[in-house]
Structure formats: C-alpha cells, structure tokens
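Lab manual, section 2.4: Encoding a predicted structure.

Procedure: take the sequence of the chain (467 residues), apply the prediction step described in section 2.3, and record the output as structure tokens. A sample record is shown.
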Amino acid sequence: MKKRLVSLLAMATMTATMFAACGSSDTASTETPATDGAATEATDSADDAAVELPEDTGKVLNIYGWNEEFKSRLTDHYAGYTEVDSTHGKIGDVDVVWNITPSTDNAYQNNLDEALLAQESAAADDKVDIFLVEADYALKYVDTDYAMALKDLGITDADLADQYKYTQDIVTDSNGNLKGSSWQACSAGFIYNREAAKEILGTDDPDEVQAAVADWSKYNETAAKVAEAGYKMCSVNDTYRVYSNNVSGKWVQDGKVVIDKNIEKWVDDSKELVDANAETTDDLWGDDWAKGKRPEGKIFGYFGPAWFFNFCLDADQDGTIANKGGWGYCVGPQSYYWGGTWICAATGTDNANLVKDIILTMTTDKAVLKDIAQKDADCVNSKTVLKELASDDSGNLDLLGGQNPYAQLAEGAEKVDLSNLSAYDQGCNEEFQKAMKNYFQGNATKDEALDMFKKAIVEKYPDVTAD
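Recorded output:
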C-alpha cells in the first residue's frame, strides 16, 4: 500500500499550488492518480450486505483537514462532542485531535501524505482515522487503498439514497467503490447586489434578475447596462467556473490537452467585457476583488455557492452589503457547482464504528442536515431537506434580504454533470486562467497567452501533449 501512495505522491510533487479559497477553499495540486492497482478491488458481495465491524479500541480519533469548517460543524451538530480547546475535543472516552494544516503551498496534502505513508507502522494513538478532501484532488486519495470503501464500514446505498449523485461521483474510485461522503451539495449561482439591480434593472426580484442573466447573451447585455451605470458586473475569474463546469469534454483526451469550446467562449466573452470596462481581472480573494462586498465597491455581483454566503460576504461586519441584507440570489446563465468537503475513513482506523457514526450523522441525518442549513446557511446534501427548506420560511436568509434560495440551489444541484471531471482539472484550470490574464490585460495576444498555457501545462504534466 505504501508503494502505491509513494508512486502517486511522486506524481503529485510535479505541481505547486494555487489560490486559497474562502470557506471551502479550492486548493493545492491535482495530479493523475496512480492506476497500477491503486484502487481497492471491487468485491462480489451485495452493497447492502451486513458488515460487522471490530470493536473500537482507539483512545484517540485523529482528524486531518485544512481549515476549521468541519471542526465547527462537528462541534455544533454532533451530539456528544465536547470541545476541549482549539485542537482537541472529546467524544465519550475518545480524545479527538484536530490536525489542521492550511492548504497554502500544498501544505495540507503534504502533511496528510506523510501521515498516510506512515499509517501501517504508526502507533495506535497516531493513526489517521478521518481525513477530508476536496473535489479538485479527491481522486488522488480515493483511488488508493488509504481510503476505505464506505460499504466496508457498513454504510449502504440505502443510507445515502437521499444525496445528490454528483456528490458521490466525485469520491468514487476507478472500480466503482464509494469512498467518501459530504454534508454539502455545492450548487452555485449568481449573487447580486439588490440596490444596484433596482438602479440598473428597475427591480431586485430574483425572477426578474434571472431573466436578465438567463444565458450568456442576456448576461452580456446586462453587463453593458451595468457598466453604463458605473458598476462592474464582476471579475472574469468569477465567471470562469460557470463556463468550465459546462464543458463537452475532458481537459485531456488521448493524452492531449483539449481546450473546450465553452472555455474558448469564456475567453472571448471575458475579453470583450474587460475591454468594455464591464468586468475586472481581479484575482479571487484579493483586496480589489473583495471591495465589492461593500456598496462603495460598485460590483453588481459574485458567482458562488451557499458556503459563499456564510464564509465570504462578511455579513457580521458593519457596512457590508450582506450585513444590510442587500444581496439576492438567482441561478444565473448556467448551473454549476463549486467546492465541498468530503469525509473519508482512513484504512487502519481503530475507531471504525465511531467513524461510521460520524459519517452517517453528519452527512445523512436529516435533522442534523436541516440544522446545519439553518444555522450555517449551507446547501446540504439531502434532496428531502432542501425541499423542506424551500417550502416555507425556514429557508429564508437575512443576508439575502429574507429571500429563500433553496429552490434555486436544489434546481442547480440536480443539473450538475461531472461526466467530464478528470484528475488534470485543477492544474489546467489554474494555468489557463493565469495565462489568459495576460491577454485580458493587454500584455499578450490571444495566441501568445495560449502558448504560455500550453508550455506551463506540459511542464506540470509531462505525460500530456499540447499542440
């Protein structure tokens, strides 16, 4: 098992990272996963067959993550969890130890890799029990023996039936074994400035604003009106994920990098809007990009998922648009998703029963999921709960002026298609945006920017070509 991950990690070191995301941070390097027998071999047993787990013997539950999000969810919503200090807790007689390493410069993955490589020989109190992954690099871990198949924990298809399929596709290995579960369904849309909408469109009604951005043609028409009024629609980097989540093929096909037509459309649309002073080239999470959180920033909107509400709009700060309940939400030109956190059980855990209960409680218990949605403004991974939230005032959000966004979030989650997801996505997406910024800012021609991208991606992934 160690040999397989060593091989995989050798691939992973080819790439550096990234930008630090807000809340659900999109991070670190994504590399081609090991394929030489890395995945757990599928068995012929039925998915719902009874699994008898050995008695838990672990005195310590080690959880690896990159930020405080899951820790706060477990602290607030898992019955029996008691916080001891910032890095320790208790569940019954078990000490919970939080190993939290920020994702910057790939530090989280490097730390987790080191721990997993030592898993077999580690002392009982040092073994990894739970680790968290994101979509951008999930395959790196789920396609190895270091992540347990959920069926081996006794978690069945029936237990997970209310989840959105795309959230399971992300953490399914090459042999069809599901190896993680998430409490989040991170469908995303367009978060718009209500006062700006009333000024420019004459209305802040979500249905009316949606009509104004219902496709890219209408979006571009509205962006022209926004620019005339002295606002910017958003950054070109806000729209990128919407385009890239709706491609017709994978980034790498038969060993060759292929730039999808929808990615090409992003380039052409963005260049036109930047030249028309209707969009910026601000980097996500930067100071200039963040100015739009306040009215004086003169930004019409942001593209984002539900975790964006809670983590990125600064609703607790005086003077922000969110603090005044000044945002609205609509689906936007195309449905897409962004982010999410998946809980994986580490092979070799000596607390398998507790790990199983945490996964089931935090990702399938409808009462817990509804509580997460209402307390944390999150879009949870339950079709039933989202339907309930959309049906009454329990889903209303103050930062959205009392709007209930859950019908739109559920609609978006149903439309997410991950058939073109690949292990090359993060590297290709990052390098493409980086190269195109030179074109948008007038520092390179389009062809020169494309050459920059192709050179960078071949250096990052020597196993591909980019003609």
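Check your result against the sample. Residues 2-185+339-391 form a domain with the D-Maltodextrin-Binding Protein; domain 2 fold (CATH 3.40.190.10).
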